[in-house]
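Worked example

This section walks through a single chain of length 341. The input is the sequence exactly as stored; nothing has been trimmed or padded.
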Amino acid sequence: MSGLTNPTASGMMVLVRRLLPLPMVLVVALLGAACGSDGDGGTGTGITPPPPARAQVQAIVASQDHYAGAPQRVAVGLVTNENELVSYGSVGFAFTYIGTAQEPSEPQAGPSATATFIPTYGTNGDGEGPAITLPSEARGVYEAADVVFDRAGFWQVTVTAEVKDVGRQQALATLAVGEEPSLPAPGDPALETENLTLDSKGVSEAAIDSRFVTDGEIPDPELHGWTIARALEEGRPAVVVFGTPVYCVSQFCGPVTDMVQDLSHRYDDRAVFIHIEIWEDYETQSVNQAALDWLLLPSGDVTEPWLYLIGSDGTILDRWSTLWSEDELAAELDRLPPMDG
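Given that input, the structure is written out below as tokens.
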């Protein structure tokens, strides 16, 4: 992404080593921004201006590591100025190229797509919508698949939603698109990573799964029996989820890890299932080497959660960032042949 400077980075992308759970900005940053102040709102007139319309919608791009020339998923979360979310149904995405930091461009129309609501695993995703909901009612993002950007640079996405009981709403968000992916991507060979397992010596249980801190045990031992390196050596497909369930600001890491755990019971004949914890030691802000191997961006940031599907030949078949559909992952596992042994 040479020549790009993310216009939202200074306000959105600063966490430990800097860990980047961007979707939570969708809930945390915008909800904080929606809080008003007392008085005249800084107008200097002594008159308090009227509040904005209830359903004023703001959009934040939740997916990460976009790049040019290949079909990929783009996910956007929608938040209203009343600390509510837009959930359910589908919305429209229209992408526009706006240039680079060095060479801004007149807006040039790009691809368009229909984006479907993906709920956080374990929450309701079947409501009539799009509709305004409280975070306690529904949490998720709208995702479009197979979006192809024809060049690197900054792109805007215009989100159009017909919101129940409100009407048509539009919101803009900006995303950076690189020449190449910064992280391992579909078609790349998987890294021969020796991630921590239940057999690892001299490490804390919390470095294997952060839920040991709250549960006093590792709740998903079936996800901590294999290394990626062993799966590759034995020619076994692998589903690998990267996330830190206890410390994940987005609150997505626990649910997506639970999803992978549940799928491991149904598809243990199709792939091995692996959870890689982000933190080696949260107190010292030390990140596990396996997470650094896969998720370290050129900026020095680490991003989560991620899910990778690796084929029996060691090639990355697919990847998902932030949030993903159980049905979509299950469909890809259904297409894999049963493993021998």
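What to look for: The radius of gyration is 21 Å.
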